[in-house]
Structure formats: structure tokens, C-alpha cells
Amino acid sequence: MADDVALVVGLGNPGPKYEGNRHNVGFLVLDVLADRVGGRFKAHKAGAEVLEGRLANRRVVLAKPRGYMNTSGGPVAGTAKFFKVAPADIIVVHDELDLPFATVRLKLGGGENGHNGLRSITKSLGTKDYHRVRFGVDRPPGRMDPADYVLKDFSTVERKQLAFELDHTADVVEALLELGLEAAQNRFH
Known about the structure:
Layout: E1 6-10, H1 25-37, E2 42-44, E3 48-55, E4 58-65, H2 73-82, E5 90-96, E6 104-108, H3 116-125, E7 131-136, H4 146-150, H5 156-179, H6 181-188
Parallel strand pairs: 1-4, 1-5, 5-7
Antiparallel strand pairs: 2-3, 3-4, 6-7
């Protein structure tokens, strides 16, 4: 990643109804990063809650789109345009069904894997070439619809270790900012 401003986006759905959902893990990680920056999110005209600060010796903009997951692209593209952030300097933190709970993986580009938030961002940015921090939420049990599963809260067992895992994921984001993709992957994969 370059030394310019980086945009770190957490994906989720707004409102108290969704706060503890698996789909909101991006918002939860950004709350940890906001504590590290020492600031509070404020409404921005691009359609996101934003916080400017420094992490890993870089200027960062933390952003939580205000709309629902499947419309995240507009606020992400608008925030990137306002702060003059290239897609290569965007990091999106999101839930990932294809990884076991709390497994964190980094990648640049690639497919959306059926994730409507990523699909919206890719469409709005016009490229898939942005960084992703994928937080595993595991597959749904039995024949449960994946869409229903991600809109459920973390289980009691998962919640017991969730704070630790969110903190770990925030460390991964900071390593990506500081070291770049390959070095961060080598450290955390």
C-alpha cells in the first residue's frame, strides 16, 4: 500500500436490530480501530459515518456506510472520491461464510463470493482491485439459508471470544497498513 491516505471500510447494516449480527463484523472491527485512533464517527455527505486519524503511521479515514449492506458501494465510492483515495488504498473489512469462525484472511481483488456488499462496492468503484480483510463467520448449520444466518447474532460461545477476535482483526488491518499485503499475509496467515 502507498503512503497516501488509506480508506478502511467496515461493512454492516445500520441500527440496533443488526448490531450483534455476523454480517456486522466490519462495523465491530471499525469500532475497535476508532478506539485506537481516539475519535468518534461523524456523518459525512458521502453517505457514511467517517473518522479521520492515524493508524500504523498512516493517515486513515475509517468509514461505515450508513445504508444497508447491499447498497454499500455508493457511500464507499463517494467517500473514496471525496478523500482522493485510489482503490488500491481501500481496505474493506467484512464477514466471510467460507472461513471458520474468527479466521482472518487478507487478499487484494478477486470475486465477491455472493457477498452483496462487496458486489455493490465493486460495481461502484468499477474495479475488484481493493483490499479485503475477511473475517470468518463459518457456514450456516444444516439447511439454513446463508442470508438468514449472517443476519443472526453471534452464538453464545462465539461471543465469549469475540472481543479478542475483533482486537486481533484490528491488528491485522494495522499490519496491512504498515507492512503491505504480502508481509501482512506472511505474518497472519
